[in-house]
Amino acid sequence: MTLGPADSDPAAQAQALVQTALASNAPRIYANGLGLAVTGSDVLMTLWHNGAPAAVINLAFPTAKSLVIDLGIVLQDVETGIERTIPTPKEIQDGLARAQQSKLPGAPAENEKQR
Description:
Blueprint: H1 10-23, E1 33-38, E2 42-49, E3 52-60, H2 61-82, H3 89-102, H4 110-113
Antiparallel strand pairs: 1-2, 2-3
């Protein structure tokens, strides 16, 4: 896709690229987990969906670095917009484990914990 002078606005360019991608036949992949490995020249990213591999993506180091930076910017914008920090999967698991522990027999009642 070639963007001409009329499309020199970065926001317009980004929107045009998103629309082109959504209109394409590129596969749509949902992931709720990921795994990373490093080779001598690439980063290998496995995307997981409910414990099963959904896709394997090889990224050159410069592309992987750009991905990290760009994702960081996008997620910072989301967190700023929602005025909340998005928890990591580990933080969610730890919170769920604490909630389960508090429901075990002999665990202090909620009003006792606040004292």
